[in-house]
Amino acid sequence: MPNEISSSRTLHRLIYTSRQAFAAGLGHDQEIEALIRASIRNNRASAITGLLLVHDGWFVQALEGPAAAVMTTYQRILNDPRHTDSRVVSAGPGGAREFGDWNMCARRFSPADDAILDALSQRSAFDPSALTDKSALRLLKAVRGIQDRTALSA
Q1: Most buried residue among 4, 12, 130, 132 by CB atoms closer than 10 A?
Q2: What is the count of structural domains for the chain?
Q3: What's the CATH code of the domain at 138?
Q4: Against a cut of 0.85, is the pTM above it?
Q5: Whether the Cβ atoms of residue 15 and residue 89 lie closer than 8 Å to each other
Q6: CA distance 53 to 74
């Protein structure tokens, strides 16, 4: 019984990449906004936090929370036709939430954010298929840092 209680409280983190696949009709920005609204609603109900990076036709996302909820959320993503070529970069227990302030924080890179890609040696071409568990987490934490600084300056 103690193991069941501790395992249900263990933080699980999953980081994945996928390509965007939007149907004709709505614009990409509208599709992304709809996806973010649904994610926030679903994640709040499941105690999931995370960060979604949207850039150059790709999604890079970290999901954090109870393992069952994270895996259910990822399965929903796999079944979502707006995501293709999904690849788990890392999955497993996490010590503490890295993105605990957001049920879903989304960030699109703008030309002003190129410094992040420079710092991560990804500037020549944004290639999420080359991300490792460490570089993916480092990228998402850098994006979180930009979000924090942007919020503080506003």
Answers
A1: 12
A2: 1
A3: 3.30.70.100
A4: no
A5: yes
A6: 15
